[in-house]
Amino acid sequence: MIHECQRWSEAARLQINAEKSKIMVFHETKARREGRQANYRDITARRPPPFHILSRFPQPRCTLLEEVPFFDYLGLRIDERVTMQAAVDHILQKARKGKAQVLAVAYSLRYDKHHHNPSVANSVYKILQLWRSLVLPHFLQYLRYIPDEKKIKTLQVALDASLSTSLHAYGHSEALLADVGLPPLDIYQKLQLAQFRYRLATSDPDSLPFVWWKAGYIYRTSFPLQALENRMQEAVSHVDRDRLHISYTQMPPQVTQAKEQNKEKSYQRFLQIQCSTLWRT
Questions:
Q1: Are 71 and 23 in contact (CB under 8 A)?
Q2: Residue 278: how many CA atoms within 13 Å on its side-chain side?
């Protein structure tokens, strides 16, 4: 595939920047990796290394591609084993930076003579809004792609600690979440999965995402329980049982009365109410 992309680029008078290109191999065994790496060390090998770009202009050149243990795709960090541990570590790293910004701003408002504003610094609501803007999005953005419950609990512990430190409110974590109106991450993940299923099921029937999702829905029983299709189905069974069998023809009034471009957002608000009910029970 690499060579085909290079041939197409040359035919279109384009040039791939091999210096900035990287590659990652999914689920590669140790024996196969060592066999590949032996080709790099064997200078007498007749064939070039497997991961390279052969360019014919401006001059013939063979450039090796750097292998990396993880890759950032649209902000989501994916590791070579797809365990999503790299994504969790990246989320925690960004959340720590966001919390440091919140604490720095609160400190500056209390003590910096140029930005001294004790009324804002002592306002729990202001600090909470700042925390919601700088920290919370990191925990929620890619939540639906993390299938492991242990990793979700790890993120929940980090979120509780970040919130309590930012607000200087130390006590029962669930009580603090209830006070600020923030459901646990496992419930929020169910909301994201149910919304994602609605987006796929109501997309254009001729589109590639719909075709892939339809095939996955039909054969989901042969997939592992942690597969995205099964997790979406389980989430819908908790927050919207009326749409468990892909019946989006009879929707709540707030969804059917909304404009076409706003239906998914209206459905999200409907799911938020269902998740609040699930949280209380």
A1: no
A2: 23
The model carries a pTM of 0.83
- Local structure of residue 228 (DSSP, 8 states): H
CB–CB of 108/115 below 8 Å? Answer: yes
Contact 209, 200 (CB under 8 A): yes
Query: Which residues touch 62 (CB under 8 Å, ≥6 apart)?
Result: 48, 52, 53, 54
Burial class (CB in 10 A: 0-12, 13-18, 19+), 49: middle
Distance (Å, whole) CA 104 – CA 96 = 12
Name 110's Cβ contacts closer than 8 Å, sequence gap at least 6: 116, 118, 121, 122
| CB atoms closer than 10 angstroms to residue 189 | 23
Residue 178, classed as helix, strand or coil, is helix
Residues in CB range of 82: below 8 A, 6 or more apart? 26, 27
* Rg, Å, the chain Cα set: 24
- pLDDT at site 36: 67
The pLDDT tens digits of the residues spanning 80-119 come to 989 999 999 999 999 999 999 999 888 887 776 666 666 6
